[in-house]
Each structure stands twice: as structure tokens, then as C-alpha cells.
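re: ur question from earlier - yeah i can do the single chain one, its not a big deal. heres the input i used so u can compare w yours
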Amino acid sequence: MYSYVIFDLDGTLLNTIDDLADTGNHVCALHGWPAHPVEAYKRMVGNGIPKLVERFAPAGTDRDTLDQAYGEFMAWYGLHKEDKTAPYPGMEGAALRLKQAGVSIAVLSNKADEMAGPVVEHYYPGVFPIVQGALPDLPTKPDPTPQAHGAHGGGPGSDPLCGGQQCGHPHSQERKSNQLRRAVGLPLPAGAGGRGGRLSGRDPGGADKGGAGRWLRTSWRPTAWCCGR
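and the output i got, formated as C-alpha cells:
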């Protein structure tokens, strides 16, 4: 029996790309920089807002300007982070079923901590008791430090289960989830140098062969996860 399930946020629980892109282009307009299409932002996101700002700013932008742009991004996004954002179908039901089964659930995100909690509560009210976003003094995922810091409340020997991005989301789902597996000492799934396993349904990674690596399937499409026993 698994004790803990830790969800990623952007691209797993919420489709946030349009609001992130709109905010980035707002900052670009303030500075006279070229705007970017949403498809380009899909390749920029995933490593926190400071890194996103570096990626949409022109190459060679100085640090003071990047810091200014970061502040402008945070101010605008704080007001517009719920304009177009929407939860992925089936994810609230999946989280609630886990809670009903007695599993402790949490969110661990590279989104700024001051925004991660409010946006989760807005779209998933009362569902997640713990939400940990990016903090200035901690590295972002896939470094395991944020998980140890707050989102995973278990002690040594407990079983974390870590969620990756929705299939089809532009983040490199398997690469990132496998980095996280290695970082926290968890086994790899089938097709990535490890043995597979499954919680429900059949998955494209050959995980129906049994073993330590696991996949969690929602009712509509599979989501990549990993676990340790």
C-alpha cells in the first residue's frame, strides 16, 4: 500500500501554458522585445519562472534587466494566472480517490511558492493539504531537496509516488521523471533501464510486466509516475 502521492502542478494538474505565455509576452511588450507563440513557450517552461524569464528575454540581456523582468512577470501573472488556466479532466477525481483510499497527497512544483498554493486551492479547493512551490533558497526539481523539504511528509522507508506531466504536454515527461527517480534513488520504469509495473490499465512503457516501477492511469489517459517501496 502506498502512503504518499506527490503531484506535479503545471502540465499535470493544471494546463497553465496560455496564461504563462500571455504574461511572458506582456513583459516582452514592456521592454520592446519580440513576442513568442504559445508553442515556443511550451519549450521554455518547466524549470521555474526565473529560468522562463531568461528564455523569453533576448540573448545577452543583462542581469539587472532580467531581475526587473522577473518582477514584472510576477506582478502581472499574479493578477492573470487564472484567466485561461484550467484543470486537466479526471485529475480531481483521481486525487479524491487516493484520499478516500487513505493515501496522503501533496503537490510539489517549480512554480513560485507564493503562487502555487493559491492556484491549487482555486482549482482544487480542499483537495491538497500540502502544496510546496519553488523557494529562493532551494534548488528546483529534479533536485530531490524540495521533496525532502516539505511536500513529502513521510519518514525513512515510506513510499513516495511522484507525478510527471500529462501525456502530450510539451515538457519532456519521461526524461524529467527519470531524473527525479534517479535523484531520489527510485527504480526506473520499463523502457528506461528498469523493470515495469502497473497500478491500473495497460501503459505504453511495457509496465504490465510487473516489478518496482509503477504507472498511475487516470480514467482518460495515462500519466507518468514513479514510486519506491
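Residues 46 and 148 are 20 Å apart (CA to CA). not sure if urs matches, ping me
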